[in-house]
Design goal:
The structure holds 2 protein chains of 2 kinds. Chain A is α/β, with parallel strands linked by helices. Chain A contains 15 helices and 13 strands. The chains are: A alpha/beta, B alpha+beta. Chain A: It comes from Streptosporangium fragile.
Chain lengths: 375, 410
């Protein structure tokens, strides 16, 4: 398939792997964080770690939008969904995320009208088709999905659709990366920068990472060769004693980002003073809410939400996994109490979550899998 | 003073250290000590890292063992209500079947959990159909209902003979649509060589069902001595799929019209009994170990069941798995793995290595098996697991899905 197979060429991968191995200084261990869950998914789906030397470790970061939603917000969303006449709409990933009192799937089984949609525009369509119902869209995601939510609100306003609102849980990537960089128990050598988010925010916002923290960051595409190439470029920077922001994904990501999308976000949403991230705790100015001007489309203002805070389960070490301090299997409940069927932490829910990806695709040590698959 | 070109070297390496002035000599000695200390620390770090790595691997193995123990535990339904995940064919479905149905109905015939039960020279099976939309490119709920049950019988190695048809109809359902459905059922039955000999009709109030649901049950006769079972796979066997995968599932997803994707694609729904007949005639003496039609949950689910039941490893080769470009394209767009997408006219065959050539020839001699291909083989380790050599050249595990394959958001 064109535009896909070129980026999955095993011969090129082998060439890159050789160069990567040559760049690694003997005796030095490297830890790179891939910020975005999409990269985690790529790494496991294609078995990319087979190409990396043992001294290069990829650490899975906080960039899975589903994984960082705190349990209290899930409970709030279910509370809204259970109000009279409400149709709650949500992306598929969100359906299994557990709150304090179960997930959307459980609430749906109890009778709430919760529907899976593929875009916020689908939710708006449902609102148009059901004028006597109140349709709420569970808005989640980083700057990647925030523009489409914002555009949908603008369209709802333009069309005068009064029975549509969003429950806004959009978060912003930079404060999360900063929180990770400031966490004392972390040792990282560089970042595989998020690709999709960068199509919106561009590469400039990452400059402080290279400048103030001295860590290379290379914005990466989502095909396996993209990620491998990115690892190569980070290692090259380290070898040459540089720390810069580079754009490996220039075929999609403009350096300045997408100004139109940023304007749409700016028009409809504003920064929250603080927001709770699952596992990471409260981070200031790290999330978006609906701006006053669009209050009529803000589910938080329309519905009385309990707004309770549910502490993460004690046994769950999602925070350490999100920060890259622990590998998924080092968590106390990994694979026993916490499995994809019965997730305790959100990292186990989405296929982009570090734990779920590890559980589904990478459970066995590389050696054993390699041994077993030898031709 | 001049200290030669050995400025970067060790003191001892250079001629005539006594020629240096004492201060310079001290400075160089101090630097050498520093260098030795650094080397020692580096070596220690390396040792430390190596020890850490080994310890980490030990710990990892312990964790993996623990997971395996948990996975072997008795199935246990934690939800207090049925959710859609229980119907998706993945882990939740397995749990529900084992913890609820098998617990209540337990008997040796059911315990095998094959596509149908085989006893007294007969094969017997049943299947219900609740597809939306009822009509889709390449077929409708009618031929699906006939082919599904015919295929379950064929997978037991039986010759399908008689079917029953039960209809649950929603008040207000157009008779014209019902006629269309029964016409395609009759045509499918004719092609498969079976007769629909008994049936039942129920009508429920508007809103209590979605148009039309169909249940079919079927009886087949075992005309040749076969012992097909998901427990029969042995190391060395090869895994064959009878044609390109994922076409039915993607067709249905696109036909629902929610995705606004258009593609030239139709369902692969077809009766497989002619194909199994050719196959079983070509490979005698139990060399065909197992037949499964890759319906709900797709090829990945089937091979996982085989790996689990036979306690073997299935190693698949991504490059060898036939997927039509249009299906691959749709899967890429949706973030879905074609290995988990349903087929309605494809089967997975496990066959002894020495019979692989004959099996492939037999399958390819029929139009429905023209795209048959060897997609992997059976290994002994690690038991119960499916591994995939990716096209990219890496390796990974292919596990059972937890719920429906859900499109990813970004």
């Amino acid at each position: 398939m064109r535009f896909v197979d070129e980026y999955r060429d095993a011969t090129k991968a082998q060439m890159l792997a050789t160069r990567i191995a040559a760049l690694c200084e003997p005796g030095r261990a490297y830890k790179f964080m891939e910020v975005c869950g999409g990269h985690t998914h790529t790494i496991y789906k294609h078995g990319l770690e087979d190409y990396l030397p043992e001294t290069v470790t990829l650490v899975h970061g906080p960039g899975c939008p589903v994984c960082v939603i705190p349990m209290g917000r899930v409970d709030d969303a279910i509370h809204i969904a259970e109000q009279p006449d409400v149709i709650m709409t949500s992306f598929g990933d969100m359906m299994r995320v557990p709150g304090g009192k179960g997930s959307f799937l459980d609430a749906k089984a109890r009778g709430a009208d919760i529907r899976m949609v593929y875009s916020p525009l689908d939710a708006l369509k449902i609102a148009r088709q059901n004028p006597d119902r109140r349709v709420v869209f569970m808005a989640i995601g980083f700057e990647t999905t925030a523009p489409s939510t914002a555009m949908t609100v603008l369209r709802a306003e333009a069309e005068g659709i009064g029975n549509f609102s969003i429950f806004c849980n959009h978060v912003t990537i930079i404060p999360a990366i900063k929180a990770i960089l400031d966490s004392p128990d972390l040792r990282l050598d560089g970042f595989v920068g998020p690709g999709h988010v960068s199509t919106v925010i561009g590469c400039r916002p990452y400059e402080f990472i290279a400048r103030d923290y001295g860590k290379p960051l290379v914005v990466a595409g989502f095909e396996p060769l993209d990620v491998l190439h990115t690892v190569y470029r980070i290692l090259l920077q380290l070898r040459e004693g540089r720390s810069e922001v580079e754009n490996q994904y220039a075929r999609v990501v403009p350096w300045e980002g997408n100004l139109k999308a940023l304007r749409a976000i700016g028009q409809v949403m504003e920064l929250r003073p603080y927001f709770e991230w699952r596992g990471l705790g409260f981070i200031s100015q790290s999330a978006l809410r609906v701006a006053e001007r669009y209050a009529a489309f803000d589910a938080e203002r329309i519905f009385q939400i309990p707004g309770g805070r549910v502490a993460d389960p004690k046994a769950c070490q999602c925070g350490e996994v999100l920060k890259g301090v622990l590998k998924p299997w080092e968590c106390k409940v990994f694979g026993t109490a916490c499995t994809p069927e019965t997730p305790i932490g959100t990292c186990m829910v989405s296929s982009e979550g570090a734990c779920a990806a590890y559980y589904n695709f990478g459970r066995f040590s590389r050696e054993r899998v390699k041994e077993a698959t030898r031709r | 003073m001049n200290v030669g070109n050995g400025g970067a070297g060790r003191l001892e390496d250079r001629p005539g250290p006594e020629m240096l002035d004492p201060q310079e000599a001290d400075r160089l000695r101090a630097r050498d000590r520093e260098q030795q200390e650094t080397d020692r620390l580096r070596a220690e770090t390396r040792e430390q890292q190596e020890a850490d790595r080994l310890r980490a691997r030990d710990r990892e193995q312990q964790v993996l063992d623990r997971i395996e123990r948990v996975r072997r535990r008795k199935a246990h339904v934690r939800e207090d209500r049925v959710t859609l995940a229980h119907g998706a064919g993945g882990k939740a479905t397995h749990t529900l079947i084992e913890a609820v149905f098998l617990e209540s109905f337990r008997n040796p015939l059911l315990e095998a959990l094959e596509d149908g039960a085989v006893a007294d020279g007969l094969a017997f099976t049943t299947d219900s159909f609740v597809v939306t939309p009822l009509f889709f490119p390449g077929g409708d709920i009618g031929d699906l209902a006939v082919n599904g049950t015919v295929n379950d019988l064929a997978m037991c190695g039986a010759r399908p003979r008689y079917l029953s048809a039960g209809f649950i109809l929603e008040e207000g359902f157009p008779i014209a649509d019902l006629r269309r459905i029964t016409a395609s059922m009759a045509e499918a039955a004719r092609i498969a060589g079976v007769q629909i000999v008994t049936g039942d009709t129920k009508v429920v109030q508007r809103g209590k069902a979605d148009g039309c649901y169909i249940n079919t049950a079927g009886v087949g006769t075992l005309d040749r001595p076969v012992r097909l079972s998901a427990t029969a796979a042995r190391p060395g066997d090869v895994v064959i799929v009878s044609g390109p995968i994922g076409e039915h599932g993607i067709t249905i997803m696109l036909a629902r019209g929610e995705l606004d994707i258009e593609a030239d694609l139709s369902s692969d729904t077809a009766p497989l009994n002619a194909l199994t007949d050719l196959l079983l005639s070509a490979c005698a003496d139990e060399r065909v170990r197992c037949l499964r039609d890759a319906t709900r949950g797709g090829v990945a689910t089937i091979v996982n069941e085989i790996a689990e039941s036979s306690q073997v490893a299935v190693v698949l080769d991504e490059d060898a798995i036939p997927v039509r470009p249009v299906v691959r394209g749709a899967c890429e767009l949706l973030g879905i793995d074609p290995l988990y997408v349903a087929c309605e006219g494809r089967m997975v065959v496990v066959v002894a290595a020495e019979a692989a050539g004959a099996a492939l020839d037999a399958l390819r001699s029929h139009p429905l098996g023209a795209g048959a291909a060897v997609i992997g083989r059976i290994n002994d380790d690690p038991p119960g697991l499916v591994l995939l050599r990716t096209s990219f050249g890496g390796t990974r595990i292919v596990d059972l899905l937890v719920g429906d394959p859900l499109p990813r958001i970004c």
